Amino acid sequence: MGASGLFGGLDVVEKPAVPPAVINEVNHGQPWNVTVVRARLLNELGDLRLQKEGDRWFAIVAEVEVTAPESRNDVGDVLSISGVEGLLDEAPQHIVAVRDASRVQYLNPNMPERIGFVWEQSGNAPLPTKVTITIYEKTYRASTLTDHMEWLDHEPRAQLEVPVEDKRAS
Fold first, then answer.
1. SS3 of 95, please?
2. What is the per-residue pLDDT across 106-151, written as a single tens digit (0 to 9) for each?
3. Which candidate in 17, 84, 86, 137 could, as Cys together with 122 as Cys, close a disulfide (CB 3.0–4.6 Å)?
């Protein structure tokens, strides 16, 4: 190990920058394809109730298509956001189908679904005008613990900045 230090073996290796994605274009990958459609602020969202009066909903709408051969129950792993202050949780509080506002728990292969990833934002927080969205991927490989094939290595695969539409009722 001492010899490898002489040849740069102990140097910090920088991860490559996350490639850019484009709004309304499919970002292909495993175990899902993702098309980010929009970001919105809302006062109401079907039968979902805000925890605190005066708060608002922050929603990312994305079309997700499972590319893996089996149904997926890890929809919350598809994307994350940054650049929005005052969210009550880091993860979305609700993940719903846009077509009927039903909770999304499983997605089936080759059946794209338009999904709302929804966070509650404090009414005292500044109104965001843009959001950075990171799309994630996983790798199908043998687990080092069980030696079974699993979807592992939840890693960023693409990133994009999206304008936020204020669709709250006046």
1. strand
2. 999 999 999 999 999 999 999 999 999 999 999 999 999 999 999 9
3. 86
Q: pTM for this one?
A: 0.89
Domain 17-166 architecture: Sandwich (2.60)
In whole angstroms, how far apart are CA 147 and each of 70, 96, 108, 138?
A: 19, 34, 25, 17
pLDDT of residue 5: 55
How far, in Å, CA of 81 to CA of 121, rounded?
13
**Residue among 56, 79, 73, 67 at smallest CA distance from 170:** 56
Q: Are 140 and 72 in contact (CB under 8 A)?
A: no
Task: List the one residue out of 133, 131, 65, 62 whose CA is nearest residue 98.
Answer: 62
DSSP state of 92: -
Domain residue limits, the chain = 17-166
What does DSSP assign to residue 77?
G
